[in-house]
Amino acid sequence: MAVESDSVAAGLDGYAASAPRALPSGRTVTRLRRPAPAPAPRGAPDGTGAPGTVAAPGPDAPGGRPASDAAGTGDPAGRHRPAPGGDGTGAPAGLPVPDASGAAVTHAAVDVVAGGVGPAAAAVTAAVALTTSPYAYDLVVSAGIGGGFAPHAPLGSVVVSDAIIAADLGADTPDGYLAVEELGFGCSVHLPPPALPGRIAEALREGGRRHVVAPVLTLSTVTGTAARTAELIARHPRAAAEAMEGFGVAEAAAAHGVPVVEIRAVSNTVGPRDRAAWRIGEALDSLRDTFRLLGSTVFLEDL
Ligand SMILES: O=C(O)c1cccc(C(=O)CC[C@H]2O[C@@H](n3cnc4c(=O)[nH]cnc43)[C@H](O)[C@@H]2O)c1
Predict the structure, then answer these.
(1) CA 108: distance to chain centroid?
(2) How do residues 185-196 score in pLDDT, each as one tens digit?
(3) Which residues fall in a compositionally biased region of kind Low complexity (predicted)?
(4) Could you report the predicted ipTM of this complex, rounded to two decimals?
(5) Which of 164, 222, 233 for mutating ligand 1's site (highest number of atoms within 8 Å of CB)?
């Protein structure tokens, strides 16, 4: 599920879109499936490994995981539960499909959903998509554009989350901000599976895409002053990006027991508001390239 679903979907070249599934809200989940690879000669390995399926929901590209979110494949662990009837492409996504030689091969599927702007809209969209899906998901990706913290994340670079942090979920006090953990209730951090950010980074490095693995902050308000920027950096010195949806998507994914990661392409630098300096087009190009790289690597792997 992804907020910026167009770039996520456009990046997944080699994947074929099937008829959208409508959510009660009117938003749609578009399933993109990578066709099974060409058959290998009899007796030879099919060369596919055991491709898993990914979900990319995200509000910006809540492909997911978002970006958007993705769905599952036939998995001995039983994580995948393709529904009868499939997705309209003729075979249930993620199930092993016999190739021309009769050998079973699997293929990946990614469901892309535009989740809306802000943590609440993104959480609702992700939760509804997860709850009403005929498939189980291996991963939810919250993807889209975001603000980058200098010097970690320059314009056009990609930030892969190693933590998704609700940076304004707490209380303001005369002595400073208190996160919900300090107030004694709730949780303001979701963590992706430990190996996943590194694996995504490896794919981006091999693809020549500038990136950093770091915490991504979720805020309901785009930062627009030097004072607020300094405050966030003081509280989260490792953070490389801020956006408005990741924590909402992560809450929905966690409620369903599905791993989550956030991926942001940097459209602007976090700081005093300078709308003319935003480079949304370049960031969307970067996001599309990122999903092209992931769609031919990480999304085909067991997660
Ligand atoms: O202020 C404007 O004129 C304006 C025009 C277009 C878009 C915006 C946004 O605020 C987009 C929010 C959207 O993009 C993500 N995003 C991008 N940069 C940041 C940021 O620095 N801080 C927080 N969110 C950002 C966000 O996830 C939303 O989905 C404004």
Answers:
(1) 15
(2) 999 999 999 999
(3) 43-72
(4) 0.97
(5) 222
